[in-house]
Write a structure and sequence with these properties.
four-stranded mixed beta sheet, 29% strand, 4 strands, elongated, 114 residues
């Protein structure tokens, strides 16, 4: 992918069945297989909150964070409510929190060594 700003939608079908049509679609990249509950009831631990097929959609957003550096995010957040500029702002706030946490943890560990 080019090193530039972009916001693209990605969508594909998830299926828990393996019919001949499903297998053809898997081979052509039109759908992805995820293991689902067994029709015979053998595997009761596998459950999903969706019916097969399920349309899975997400966004891939890339934005510049400094000269020559970009960050790529994958999100299911709505494009209208969270445009790339808002995601960039939230990402920046997140780094402020992580940097602060790292500073305090490092400071605390240094105090423990004394």
């Amino acid at each position: 992918m080019p090193m530039s700003d972009w916001d693209i939608a990605v969508s594909f079908e998830l299926r828990t069945t393996q019919t001949k049509q499903d297998q053809k679609d898997f081979a052509e990249g039109k759908a992805k297989y995820v293991r689902g509950p067994s029709k015979r009831g053998l595997d009761k631990q596998v459950t999903w909150d969706f019916e097969s097929p399920f349309q899975f959609s997400y966004r891939v957003v890339r934005f510049k964070i400094s000269p020559g550096e970009y960050e790529t995010l994958v999100t299911s957040l709505d494009r209208n409510a969270f445009p790339p500029e808002k995601l960039k702002e939230l990402y920046h706030l997140r780094w402020g929190i992580e940097t602060s946490l790292r500073f305090h943890l490092t400071d605390h560990l240094l105090m423990l060594r004394l």
